[in-house]
Design goal:
There is one protein chain. By secondary structure, the chain is α/β, with parallel strands linked by helices. The chain is 23% helix and 29% strand. It is built from 4 helices and 11 strands; from the N terminus they run E-H-E-E-E-E-E-H-E-E-E-E-E-H-H. The strands form 2 sheets. Strands 1, 2, 6, 7, 8, 9, 10 and 11 form an 8-stranded mixed sheet that branches. Strands 4-3-5 form a 3-stranded mixed sheet, with no helix packed on it. Helix 2 packs across helix 4. The protein is globular, with a radius of gyration of 16 Å.
Length: 213
């Protein structure tokens, strides 16, 4: 299913194997670079998988032999799986390319989505992603992660937001290389089920934030 929004076309891909999604990203990237396709955002869930960005350290990885896929995005190791909505924007950035500004727009999209569900989230200085601030329940904890790459002026990889996933998957790794903070989900924070199906249309509605400069 696709609905064109502000020049962006969201594609709902359902549940897609990580490698298949990576192949589709590269196909779309070539098409957008060549001007054969407009900006497109893949929205999907993955079967459970760990992916390691270029800055992943050996001690960040699972110690129990769990398979890890090495990828060419920035950042460190993270988990994707059921109950987490993943977005892969394949978007042509304006010249001059400003990657930091694009990351900030991605964060804003996710902050606005959290707010629609009643969760106050924001940024943490020096750390990417979207965070629930420290409170009486514990230290700052990440509800959405961002890891991107820009090649030939067009973005790859993207963001993930934890809806109602099993957070114990993060216990095997040092998520994003950060040892002194936790990981959370919309469901865990709000105390009610918040599914991928509920979050998907809200993310779609906020996608224009990615291209507003």
């Amino acid at each position: 299913m696709s609905v064109t929004t502000s020049g962006l076309t969201p594609l709902r891909a359902g549940v897609l194997d990580y490698q298949a999604a990576w192949d589709e990203q590269r196909r779309l990237h070539e098409a957008v670079v060549a001007g054969e396709q407009g900006d497109t955002v893949l929205l999907l869930e993955h079967p459970s998988v760990y992916t390691a960005g270029k800055r992943t350290e050996p001690w960040d990885r699972p110690m129990d032999g769990t398979p890890v896929i090495d990828v060419d995005r920035g950042g460190k190791i993270t988990w994707h799986g059921p109950g987490q909505l993943v977005g892969y924007p394949i978007v042509k950035l304006p010249d001059p390319v400003d990657v930091v500004a694009y990351v900030r727009r991605t964060e804003q999209l996710l902050i606005d989505v959290c707010a629609e569900f009643g969760l106050t989230a924001g940024r943490v200085e020096g750390r990417s992603g979207v965070w629930v601030p420290e409170d009486d329940r514990g230290p700052a904890r990440k509800v959405a992660a961002i890891g991107i790459r820009v090649a030939r002026g067009v973005t790859l990889h993207g963001f993930s937001i934890n809806c109602d996933c099993d957070l114990t998957y993060y216990d095997r790794i040092v998520p994003c290389g950060i040892r002194d903070a936790g990981t959370t989900s919309l469901t865990a924070e709000l105390g009610r089920p918040v599914t991928v199906a509920a979050v998907l249309p809200v993310v779609e509605r906020h996608l224009p934030t990615l291209v507003q400069v």
